[in-house]
Amino acid sequence: MHSKGSENTLGNIANNYRISKGKWRPRHRFIAFLPLVILLFVVIPLDIAAKDLTCNRLPMLMEAFHENHYATKSMTPQIKAQAVEQMIKRLDPSKTLLYESDLQTIKPLLLELFVSVEKGNCASLQPVYTLLVARARENEAMVKRILGPDFRLDDRMELTIDVEKRPFPKTVAAKQELLKKIVQFQIENSLLSGIDMAEAKKQQIHRYELQTKRVVEQNPAQLITTAAEAFAGALDPHTSYLSPRNLEDLQIQMKLSLEGIGAMLSSDTGFTIIEELVPGGGAEKTGMLKPKDRIIAVAQEGEKPVNVIDMDLRDVVSMIRGKKGTRVTLTILRPGQSKDRFNVTIVRDKIDMKEQEAKISYESRKAGGRQYRFGIIDLPSFYGGEKGGKSSYEDVKKLLAEARLQAVDGIVLNLSRNGGGLLDEAVRLAGLFIGKGGIVAVRDGRGEVTILSNGSPSLWSFGNKRKVVRLPLESQRSIYTGPLVVLTSRMSASASEIVTGALKDYRRAVIVGADHTYGKGSVQALFPLPWELGGMKVTTGLYFLPGGQSTQKTGVTADVVLPAWTSLEDVGEASLDYPLPAQSIQPFIALRGKDAPAWKPVDEVLIPALAEKSKARVEKDAKFAKISKDNKEAAARKGVIQIAEFRKSMKEENGGKEKKTPSELRQKAREENAPFVNESINVLIDMIANAQTRKTSPATNTSKGGSVNRADAAGRQI
């Protein structure tokens, strides 16, 4: 539940708009997160009718992006060139459709588009569309020839799986060779799942037939949406145009609640497949549906069924979506048992996405002749946004209260899988560990700095283009004051970095994990668009930690560094297209005042000792040794894999199964995370042992250049 002060300060997603001089200015809500790739589409309600973006709306949309963006306020030649680059990436993300020579044809057309679109002219999309259709049909014909009677698997076949390192083909022969390699790996994947060669070839041919169908369906009018997405992507990596469906997906990701049948769906060779049933959802309650069931038709209440075979997954999802209390009938084909079809009528209902909620687990350890008990809080995202709905801040607050009843000796806050979320949720949550104090500052495009602080619910000026927004202060009973470790990874991003960085600047916690976090130091505002056109997510500012530094491109460095989960050289803000530069501001850590904290600041002198002890353990740990070995082998391959290696890795990965279910994938992620959580607990034990055996002076006297002394200096400067 959100406080009134929080809502008034940071805004809400609203459906009404302010109109001024013919311009619409939508109200917004700040979000700070790393976009995640959604592989399975959740069945959710669609309250607004999805409408295609039209060419005459594009100029107003582009102007709105410029007006609200942190850094780019007008269409420059550089932005036009970057928009062309982004458009090509969206038209041919795998570099299998277009030839290198085609780029010379379509680049001038796309450049003309972004020049003339300001006048509402999108005519240059027609020849681009015609070329894409021709290339898709060419690919379909090539694949049919490749999979002819003479097709054989070649174990020595190698494929560069990193598309960025792969050039566009220059000749017909080069394209045919690329498609041959890709098809070889696709066929091998089918064979490993138990499908025979004849069926595997049939499925691959159908896959490319569907690809042609999708390209044909993406007519010039629909390419206008692609152009809007490309333009937004040209401004920075996290600004984007959201279609109505994508907007609702994002809102659900933030709220962790939905209305629907309670099923996760995927698409394979034209079939919509039920991957998982959400516990307590309408689909599970019927008792008739199972994972791997195929949905072949959908009927609304009182209407005839519509065949959905070969239909795009997003269109199928749109048909199944609906409001709570309404009914939808699915026609199901269950493979392996019978070819008979059967119908299932489901009442749509509200579903809570429990899997993404904050959770706590406990672990007991014996060390130094004493029994310890620790709490591990796993927080996948900073969710919330609906009054009375889900809130990561409220959930963690309850978990900390539970942990106190369990008399834990320390807490691990696991943010290693957390890509971010809502800014106000992150600020309030940090207050559960720090209490009073500034958590994050946001600087907008005008250079004005707003500091978000946990304190009395008032707004007052700070001077020098600064103001402080004070959110409600936590009661002393709600603040956790014991030993704290924050577990991070290269995937810990945005709002995760805000919390991690604040806890580090205040010396409230020891940071354990990858060398540094993701490095996303920008804040986005979500603007719903009028005319039922979806929304736009715009970078409106950079955020800064209490010590004055931004995490942009650099992230938050760990105190105790562990091996990376995987080979992550290219994971991070710095590797994205057009990232904003890192900046800094005057520190504001002194906002905390002179009040002594209820928790004991981490003695920075002890950090090297903790890191050294951890390093010695990690070097002897078999699981970390395997992680390091796998990372070195992956780096040595340089993004190239051979079919024989692929076969071996898939068999090891899936254990001979067709593929892992979503539940199995989540369990696998927990198992992979276990060594990192285990070492975080070891660090906690070392912290407690050091506190018991080492006599230290007050932190403000013993710290040599530590954050508290820097805060005092910052206070005098302010």
Description of the structure:
The chain has 20 helices and 28 strands. Helix 5 (125-146) packs across helix 6 (172-192). A hairpin with a 2-residue loop joins strand 1 (17-20) and strand 2. The strands form 6 sheets. Strands 3, 6, 18, 19, 20, 21, 22, 25 and 26 form a 9-stranded mixed sheet that branches. The protein has 3 domains: 73-235, no CATH class; 257-352, PDZ domain (Pdz3 Domain, Roll); 355-717, 2-enoyl-CoA Hydratase, Chain A, domain 1. The chain is of the alpha+beta class and 718 residues long. It is 39% helix and 20% strand. 41% of the residues are buried. It is globular.
Shape descriptor reads globular
Measure the end-to-end span: 34 Å
**Shape-level CATH architecture of the largest domain:** Alpha-Beta Complex
Helix-and-strand structural type: alpha+beta
CATH topology of the largest domain: 2-enoyl-CoA Hydratase, Chain A, domain 1
Q: What is the count of structural domains?
A: 3
CATH homology superfamily name of the largest domain = 2-enoyl-CoA Hydratase, Chain A, domain 1
Q: Summarize model confidence as the mean pLDDT.
A: 83
CATH class of the largest domain: Alpha Beta
Helix content: 25-40%
